[in-house]
Amino acid sequence: MDVDTSKGRMAAYLRDHHDKVVGRWSELVAAGVRGRTSPDEMRRELDDLFSLIVRMLSDADDHAAGELRAALDELSRTRARDGYTPSETALNVFSLKEAVYELVADAAEMVPEYLVFSRMVDDLGLRTFETYSAAREQIISDQATTMLELSTPVVRLWDGIIAVPFVGTLDSVRTQLVMEKLLDSLVATGAGHAVIDITGVPTVDTEVAQHLLKTVSAARLLGAECTISGIRPQVAQTIVSLGIEFGDIATKATLADALSLALQQAGLKVVRA
Amino acid sequence: MERVPILKIGRTLFVSIQIDLQDDTVMRLQEDLADELAATGARGVIIDITGVEIVDSFIGRMLTTIGSVSRLFDAETVIVGMRPAVAITLTELGLTLSGVRTALNAEKGLEILNGRP
User: Fold this and answer.
1) pLDDT tens, position by position, for chain A (273 residues)?
2) A213–chain B nearest CA distance, Å
3) Is A60 helix (H, G, I), strand (E, B) or coil?
4) Taking the model in full, what pTM does it have?
5) Which of A180, A220, A267 sits opposite B84 (nearest CB)?
6) Are A193 and A262 a contacting pair, CB within 8 Å?
7) Which of A222, A249, A269 to mutate to test the interface with B (most CBs of B within 10 A)?
8) CB A221 to CB B80 under 8 A?
9) What is the CATH number of domain A155-265?
10) Which CATH architecture has domain A3-146?
């Protein structure tokens, strides 16, 4: 018996037992989703999927396979966004096998057909899984982009003095972005002094220090002086034990200290009114 | 060969580079500048590189060399108007332009030469 006949017979069999299989399938999936999708909505989704699977098995038309893949992709993406785990998403598809198995268990003559069907469902399940991971990766990269945009404000402290609070771990990509933003702001505002505040940087290692030094020397090339502020006690300990030298770059404990240094260098003095 | 004009304003020489620098243009500029410094006894040189979008290590070294040559004539060199992208490139190349001063724009450069912070 060849595979195509098996598929055809399976399709006919499934079509005859449409309501029964979909009913049992919905029950099995419902146990997994624990009320996050309404039973009616889910039943509708599975009903559509099932019809597509039967159409694909019966080779009724060429579009069925494409439509089925699109429907599955959409389902997996929705599940990924709604916070379902990968196994919960894959079980959506795999539980169809169980529902059908319960039905064919009594009919011994359907075993070869069931095996063909089972392999097809496995492929569909794997596809669900792949789409699910792709959707999750997309979400992660979107969030990373949002974070990059969030984390680089440049604030004007005084006439000719700007501050750049660094927040989060500094890697090469972020440093490049922050550096460009800082230099652009220096040119745009004509500020001669910049304060780099690293209160929000959790750890400073040799790489981060290297990035900081690069930023400062680039700013110097433009003709602006930089002060690094917000060095916390633990960070200071780490910097010293790593043997990092900031050279002639001024470092201060707080942003306020850095501002007063900048004012002093600009020849300004703050007095009580 | 294109030449970069050198303007004398008071006791300052003003060089504004507005073309893409070729190696021979750079050599010519160094020679012209040395001649001019010797002839005028200028005390300061301002090099405006607002128009320079691309730098390499050769141009980076040229700026340092001009600084050293000027120093021999007791003149101070200030590089003004460097673009952020150029500054990043020079930093990545490891050039810190020691021996020359830098300023954001020509006005600030003149203030440095005139001894006003």
Assistant:
1) 566 777 788 888 888 888 888 888 888 888 777 667 777 888 888 888 888 888 888 776 677 778 888 888 888 888 888 878 888 888 888 888 888 888 887 777 778 888 888 888 888 888 888 888 888 898 889 888 887 777 678 889 998 899 998 887 777 777 788 888 899 999 999 898 999 999 888 888 888 888 888 899 999 999 999 999 998 888 888 888 988 888 889 999 899 999 999 999 888 888 888
2) 10
3) coil
4) 0.66
5) A180
6) yes
7) A222
8) no
9) 3.30.750.24
10) Orthogonal Bundle (1.10)
- Please count the other Cβ atoms lying within 10 Å of the Cβ belonging to residue B103: 23
Distance CA A51, CA B66 (A): 80
In whole angstroms, give the CA distance from residue A101 to residue B33: 91
The interface pTM score, or ipTM, of the predicted complex is 0.78
User: Which residues are within 8 A (CB) of B5 and not within 5 positions of it... i.e. 6 or more apart?
Assistant: B15, B16
Cα–Cα distance for residue pair A155/A164, rounded to 1 Å = 6
Domain borders along chain B are 6-114
**Best interface-test mutation with A: which of B104, B105, B107, B113 has the largest number of A CBs within 10 A?**
B104
Put simply, the answer to whether B105 touches A190 (Cβ < 8 Å) is: yes
Q: How far is B103 from chain A (nearest CA, A)?
A: 4
Contact residues, chain A, for B96 at CB < 8 Å: 217, 220-221
CATH of B6-114 given 3.30.70.100, 3.30.200.40, 3.30.750.24, 3.40.1670.10:
3.30.750.24
Domain ranges in chain A are: 3-146, 155-265
